[in-house]
């Protein structure tokens, strides 16, 4: 419900007891806080757009990257030229898996280091790109299907239930 609808509803309420008066006052204060926070959010959006425009970046043209995420990326990275290549950037964000191999066992584990806030932004961008289609979704589908068999249909199989193959 919007703040205006809540204010319209409150005008029709006539408190009867002292408790009702107190509840009405609390509701008015909460409504004033809601309006203030809404104003601050809108002002913040304008400031972020202006800051992004001042950098003359093309980040917001990427799918899945809006004003807020672009501002977070620019805030955490600053000048991208400080990273010699994409590998250094990936290491900084903590998005590169760590080698956990031993002997002939080649394994990798999750990297819990790096800039976790920036890693979270990259994750949100990836989720949006996978959800909305395009190159990100194509890449994701290619990666999850690589080296795996097609999934079996749901339900009992002849491996799980010997009677399934005989039809009885």
UniProtKB/TrEMBL annotation:
PANTHER family: PUTATIVE TRANSPOSASE FOR IS117-RELATED, TRANSPOSASE FOR INSERTION SEQUENCE ELEMENT IS1111A. It comes from the Bacteria. This is IS110 family transposase. It comes from Streptomyces sp. 900105245. Pfam families: Transposase_20. Residues 58-140 form the Transposase IS116/IS110/IS902 C-terminal domain. Residues 145-168 are annotated as: Disordered.
């Amino acid at each position: 419900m919007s703040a205006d609808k809540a204010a319209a509803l409150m005008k029709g309420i006539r408190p009867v007891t002292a408790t009702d008066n107190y509840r009405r006052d609390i509701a008015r204060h909460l409504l004033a806080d809601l309006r203030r926070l809404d104003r601050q959010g809108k002002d913040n959006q304008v400031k972020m757009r202006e800051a992004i425009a001042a950098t003359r970046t093309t980040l917001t043209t990427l799918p899945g990257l809006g004003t807020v995420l672009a501002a977070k990326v620019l805030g955490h990275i600053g000048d991208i030229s400080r990273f010699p290549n994409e590998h250094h950037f990936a290491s900084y964000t903590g998005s590169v898996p760590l080698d956990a191999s031993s002997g002939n066992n080649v394994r990798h584990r999750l990297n819990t280091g790096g800039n976790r806030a920036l890693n979270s932004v990259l994750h949100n961008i990836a989720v949006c790109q996978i959800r909305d289609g395009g190159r990100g979704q194509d890449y994701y589908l290619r990666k999850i299907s690589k080296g795996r068999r097609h999934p079996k249909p749901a339900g009992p199989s002849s491996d799980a239930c010997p009677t399934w193959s005989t039809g009885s």
